[in-house]
Design a protein that fits this description.
Number of strands: 7
Order of helices and strands: EEEEHHEEEHHHHHH
Distance between the termini: 31 Å
Mean pLDDT: 84
Low-confidence stretches: 204-208, 211-218
Number of helices: 8
Number of domains: 1
Length: 237
């Protein structure tokens, strides 16, 4: 599956391997690998380009968003990997939800097709961010347990109180079956807490995504009412 756009004489493409999932609750595996392949025309940026400023700056700008999604995230760059780099997300929210279907990896390719010999990094990453934001809004609704910033916080908080009520107030010391309540939480997230739902409530904009939108490219986000950036665009010239 892919998203394609044109900017001037250049073409940008996002490809990904996530299938369309209906009526199934998908949660992240304890370790979720988001694998990126970055192409400039036919050249894939890899660890061999580590001395290249473009690779260094690009590979460090992709993981801060996932920390905001309640993951502990790091960047993995390896000469043995087929990818340009991977964002490794450690999940702590669904550790006891063993019977639910888990997502352990996502492959994403970002391609710029250009005749130019010099593309400003701000333009390149700003356009890649536009593609990623467009993709995110689509897959968030299908995989809210994996992608929804507010939804994951909502589940984390409600699971805490669900377990606390069973143990401390109901004195139920049996197996805590969080799989029973998570589907209900997912229904609420899809109705109220995805990006597309939050767009309907302008009062949510300022505190839902609190990045400094005044410093990012005008082309950076498909969401114009507040700053939603999967790539850190701050301090990019």
């Amino acid at each position: 599956m892919s998203i394609k756009i044109r900017r001037g004489d250049d073409y940008y493409i996002l490809g990904h391997d996530l299938p369309t999932i209906l009526n199934t609750v998908i949660i992240p595996a304890p370790k979720l690998s988001i694998n990126f392949k970055i192409f400039i025309n036919n050249h894939q940026l890899t660890e061999e380009d580590s001395d290249n400023e473009l690779f260094q700056l690009t590979s460090t700008k992709f993981h801060s968003f996932w920390s905001r999604c309640r993951y502990s995230s790091t960047i993995d760059v390896s000469a043995e990997s087929e990818y340009s780099f991977s964002v490794i997300c450690q999940d702590q929210i669904f550790l006891d939800s063993n019977s639910l279907t888990k997502l352990s990896s996502i492959d994403i390719s970002l391609t710029c097709l250009t005749y130019s010999l010099n593309i400003p990094l701000k333009d390149l990453l700003g356009t890649f961010n536009y593609l990623l934001t467009s993709w995110f809004i689509s897959v968030e609704l299908q995989y809210p347990c994996v992608f929804s910033i507010i939804g994951r916080k909502f589940i984390e908080l409600n699971l805490y109180w669900y377990k606390k009520m069973k143990l401390e107030f109901l004195k139920d010391f049996g197996i805590i079956n969080s799989e029973k309540v998570i589907p209900r939480y997912v229904d609420i997230i899809k109705e109220k807490f995805t990006t597309s739902s939050l767009l309907k409530d302008s009062s949510s904009y300022s505190h839902v995504y609190d990045q400094d939108s005044s410093k990012v490219s005008d082309f950076s986000s498909i969401v114009r009412s507040y700053s939603l950036n999967l790539i850190d665009l701050i301090e990019i010239e």
